[in-house]
Amino acid sequence: MSQFFEPFGFSFMQDALLVGGLVGGMCALLSCFLILKGWSLMGDAISHAVLPGIVLAYITGIPLAIGAFLAGLFCATSTGFVKRNSRIKEDTAMGVVFTGMFAFGLVLFSKTPSDLHLDHILFGNILGITRFQFWQTIGMGGAVVLVTLLLRKDLLLICFDPGQARVMALPDRFLNYLLLGLLALAIVVALQAVGIILVVAMLVTPGCVAHLWTDRFDRMLAISCGSAVIATVTGILISYHADASTGGCIVLVQAAFFFVSLLVAPKYGIIARKLKR
Predict the structure, then answer these.
(1) Which range marks the domain in which residue 88 is found?
(2) Does the predicted model carry a pTM greater than 0.70?
(3) Which residues of the chain carry a pLDDT beneath 50?
(4) 1 lies in some domain
(5) Cα separation of 201 and 44, whole Å?
(6) Has residue 266 been placed in a domain?
(7) Cβ proximity of 254 and 246 under 8 Å
(8) How many separate domains does the chain show?
(9) What's the pLDDT at 1?
(10) Among 56, 81, 59, residue whose Cα is nearest residue 69
(11) Angle at CA of residue 207, ends 76 and 266, nearest 5°
């Protein structure tokens, strides 16, 4: 037991657990909306598209988070522009835009002398965050959680029935762009934890887990956040004891939660459905 609780005695582990719990809960909240709206691929697209924004921010000397956020918004709006002005479907437009931006970011990174580590950008470095990054993540992540919870009913309506939202005089276009902005900001916050490549798992898996357990949206939010926080804390502790990739351990624990839920969820699990038959 003393070996198990050993990590809690280190300040960098305490920071990692706090930041990881917040990031996991924040991504889990948005995950529910993305699953219901069918925007799972949008999270993948924006997470890859932020790389050129990070490099350009480093070149110009502005905070990296600002560059990543602007690049994410550019990816989302570019996808919408291509969809509206061509016969290309949305998922295809996402694939073209985010792969192009990710490749552009790789080229910029390879031609820019810097002390940035590509591994930290791709896979995260939650155990090595600075004090400034800690408070930046707490502030930005807290803002995303607060706005999402305050507007959850309006966001839920535009996910389920955009036509009804317009009838009720809700600003559906503004809410769509707000959800995209929250998604881009959440990805910027989560980069410290799991990096560009694995952040999409944090934005998809918790919502999938909760969707297997319940049909009620408030319960879905609670299950999603609870499973994500537990998976994040467990993954950080496993990575400490196993000396393995922290982001990879977090995502593996979330994947394990999903497959367990797929089997034993009381209503939509494989075992429950076979028993009903």
Answers:
(1) 11-276
(2) yes
(3) none
(4) no
(5) 9
(6) yes
(7) no
(8) 1
(9) 65
(10) 56
(11) 155
